[in-house]
């Protein structure tokens, strides 16, 4: 019977590939990859020359999805991988998983590296409750609107960002959330892995001295419960201001 495997791959250090991930990729009839060149490198490293590769990325999703469903109907096993980390986490996969479930085929998740969790656990910020925000919208107006929502949340917030936008995002976080604690994880699992822990203002200053290089996850403290109450109050009063006569 056809099955879809979601296979997590390393986010830098190739040793983070799991034994099970190697085994599943070896045995899959077809590997659907976000970028086939990138995946070839991984396959070569683990000396897997056999598997057939097809591409599944943001821009060919509907067509590739049909192809994958057809393979599953033929009884083949398909393994989905992205360039790095866990598929469907700020990466293609979500739509395919839904389509495969709707078509009645099993979806099997092979766990492994995920930058968000890797950054969170070493952040020093509360891990009991957190929200994965991922990438903020590109357009400023939408970013600010989204941050206005997260501002009232008390759990730890996890952001992804492209290297050339880190500076701008940190400025927006500071302006919209206030001077909270941040743990910025850079180049996780790689040679120059680094954590910058402090306040958003301190991190902004650090970026002035040494501009952002490499990949970052930004882990930001949630709103304090007291602040959340004040926010709630302001919100409530704002809504009912016309009811107050005194
Ligand atoms: N699917 C991936 C995962 O499971 O983490 C995320 C892919 S997303 C397109 C890429 C973003 O993840 C980067 O912009 C960065 O924010 C974060 N990221 C990925 N690898 C990283 C690393 N080694 N160190 C720090 N951040 C990383």
Main attributes of the structure:
246 residues; 5-stranded parallel sheet; 5-stranded mixed sheet; 10 strands; binds S-adenosylmethionine; alpha/beta
Write the layout of secondary structure elements.
Elements: E1 3-7, H1 19-27, E2 30-33, H2 36-45, E3 52-55, H3 61-73, E4 77-81, H4 94-102, E5 107-110, H5 115-121, E6 130-134, H6 140-150, E7 156-161, H7 166-177, E8 181-186, E9 194-199, H8 200-209, E10 216-220, H9 225-240
Parallel strand pairs: 1-4, 1-5, 2-3, 2-4, 6-7
Antiparallel strand pairs: 7-10, 8-9, 8-10
Bound molecules: S-adenosylmethionine.
Residues 11-12, 82, 84-86, 89-91, 114-116, 160-162, 185, 187-190, 215-217 line the site of S-adenosylmethionine.
GO molecular function, one term: rRNA (cytosine-2'-O-)-methyltransferase activity
Function: Catalyzes the 2'-O-methylation of the ribose of cytidine 1402 (C1402) in 16S rRNA.
Family: Belongs to the methyltransferase superfamily. RsmI family.
